[in-house]
Structure formats: structure tokens, C-alpha cells
Amino acid sequence: MQYNRAVQQLHRAFYDRDTIVVARELLGKYLVHTVRSAARVGRIVEVEAYLGPHDRAAHSARGVTERTKVMFGPPGYAYVYFIYGMYHCMNVVTERAGHGAAVLLRALEPVKNLEGRTCGPGLLCRAMAIDQRLNAHDLLSANFHIAASPKAEPFVIAKRARIGVYYAEQWAKRHLRFYIRGNPFVSRP
DNA sequence: TGCACGATGAAC
DNA sequence: TTCATCGTGCAC
Questions:
Q1: What is the mean pLDDT of each run of 10 residues along chain A (189 residues)?
Q2: What CA–CA distance (Å, rounded) separates A92 from A101?
Q3: Which bases of chain B are contacted by protein, using any atom under 7 A from a CB?
Q4: Strand B contact with A52 (CB < 7 A)
Q5: Please, what are the domains in chain A?
């Protein structure tokens, strides 16, 4: 894989924009986590946008807490949380500090050094070796970041309702899940 | 200090 | 449809 971090790593300004725009543009980008000098790389094929405290489905809807404070921090940081007693989920914090928005990464297409399934937020974190230790980690770093893909292949973006947020009333119905149409690694096409 | 439940995934 | 499994948030 041709890869030049200096050229391809996304900058802070990428994340400091409207959350839906960031969510859509994260599709096709490469998530990179280097573990024991081996770069694990996956192409992002499915995401969900969580818009802020007004979004009833977002963790930030409960306000600033010990867990959600990262979501209210500056953009371009990882928000990693533990769920159902066994899985981790990874988000990318968006918009300016205090806003409380983030994009959940739901599925990856394996590119390099990935073993096991990567379709679904829990499996994705397991394959990428992402856990609580990476919570609040800056994504503008050498070992953990997101980069533009070396060869941008064209794709069509599909949008659907988010998964597992049935309790969020009208917010449960909004089409804030985005994925690459036809990609076999999407968790729920 | 206790307890209900969840941005999941796998089995049945 | 059910269950594993435990941190978080809020009630008491």
C-alpha cells in the first residue's frame, strides 16, 4: 500500500465542520492504528452522525459527564466507550469544543494487518485493537489517525436510520447513518 | 450505595 | 428472541 502520512493524514480543520458533512466525508478514508510497530489499516465504509445534546440518541444528550466530556472537547479526538460489558465503540469528535457531537465508526473494509471481522462497531474495535486506553487520544498522531486513501475510488453514499436508538423518539427515524452502497463489509445494508 | 440499562454480537 | 457482561448515570 502506497502511504505517506505527512501528505494524507487529515488535519484538525477536517473535523471542525458540520457533523453530517464530516460523517459523509469519512467514508472511504483510512483508519490507521499502529500496534507493536505494525500499522493496522481499515477503510471506513459505514458511519453514524450524533449531532449534539439536542440529539436524543447521542450520549451528549445527558450533558457533560465523566464519560461524555471527550465528546464536548475539541474536534479530531477519539471518543471510545465500553458497551454491553464486552465491546468498545469508537467515535471521532466533530465541531468546535463545547458542541458535543461525534461520528461513530460502524464498519471497516480490511486493508492491512487486520484479522477477524470488522463489520459492526464492536468487532471493528476488536480487530483494530481499540479500547478505553485510546479514549481522548488525539487523532493527529503518528500511531493513531485517519488519512485520505491513496487511490480514491468513486462510490455512492446510502443513508438510513441509525441502529439501536429506537428509544430516541423522532431522532431515531432521522437518516443519520451513512454507508458505501454495495460494499460487502457494511454491517446492515 | 444500589440498580436498570445500553450507539453489540452471536446463538437459538 | 434471548443472553452474556459491566461501566455509567441517576435514583434513593
A1: 82 98 98 97 98 98 97 98 98 98 98 97 98 98 95 92 96 97 96
A2: 9
A3: 6-10
A4: no
A5: 12-179 (3.10.300.10)
